[in-house]
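Form 12-C: Joint structure prediction
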Amino acid sequence: MTRQPTIFTSISRLLVSLLFLAVATSAAQAQSFWKFQSDSIPFFRGFAVSADLVGLAQMQLSDYGQYEAALRLNLHDQYFPIVEVGIGRANHQKDEVTGISYKTSAPYFRVGVDVNIMKNKHAPNRIFAGLRYGYTSYKVDVDREPFPDPTWQWDVFYGVKDEPCSQQWAEILFGIDAKIMGPLHLGWSARYRNRLSHKDGRMEKTWYVPGYGIQDTSSLGVTFNVIIDI
Amino acid sequence: MRRLLLSLSITSCLAACSSIDCPVQNKVSVNYSVCQYDNGKEVADTLTDTLYIWTRRKDGTDTLLLNRGVNTRSFTLPVSYSHPEDVLIFATTNTNNDMTLDTVWINKEDIPHFESVDCGARYFHNLTAVRSTHSAIDTIIINNPSVTYDETADHLHIHFKTSR
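Section 2 - Result
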């Protein structure tokens, strides 16, 4: 069985290529990209906490999404080690076509680093390139009301309950961080995700993965963060 | 910065697209090959008799699964979603219209298979045992126990008696 690539897959590949190109171009332009700029600004510049509003909106407007917050260190306005933690939930009840229900709720985390690729590292606005490693361990309930076997007509009880699953993935991201006023920043990021490993239980596939999204279609994602410097 | 915002907005819109990605080939069935032994080696055969296959439904009525198979070399039959044993009746009719009946029992493990909430509920199967009566059927053996969406899999080899 061979799947034909969808238009979405093709668009994803194109965008990822453009993302890499943008990062590479910016990196080439930035002087001393991998070196700390030598100036009088201290090495440790503080913490920032942030919350993602895209996952929150997804949670409110659809039957899946995530609550996510992050803690970020500022090293010389240049490197930003970051930990993102959240809870991802899906509660898809009785699909109107297939009748299948899908439920999961689990925590997840991502760790990684953002690099400020602006030439002037200490400017109030920043442009980032970054990497993340993500992991979640979750349980899924999949079920459907009993339906008759198409040939034999016996009732079929389809589904699994508390099926243990897990997934590791990597993300490459490109984002901006704009200072609004005082310690308040707003940040956007576009991310390309790639599964490193996954355990999907007896049913061999899952649908929504906490922190990652819908398995087949979540290779691209976006976040919109409200960030407060501490 | 404006260009960046525009790029991110376009990316956001595209990322919001959704697609239904169910497999095109989503039929789960058991493929049978008619075989014979030639010097101890299993080779393809053709059944010269006419073949009918049916099974009994939950309500006790019969349903025909294969009608008037002529010069049969292979055939495909449905498999029950979640019943541990399927019972099939094989009827072969020779040129004199003499009918011979056999019963085939197929035991299996049923594995619920999930693609997405957008794709229908399906079961995959692992064939564990197969047996039959031996009026026209000589032997029936499991060649590939894994019954999935793979329509090319050669699951069961059935040998009919040569003189009927």
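Section 3 - Comments
Chain B has a mean pLDDT of 89. Chain B is about 10% helix and 50% strand.
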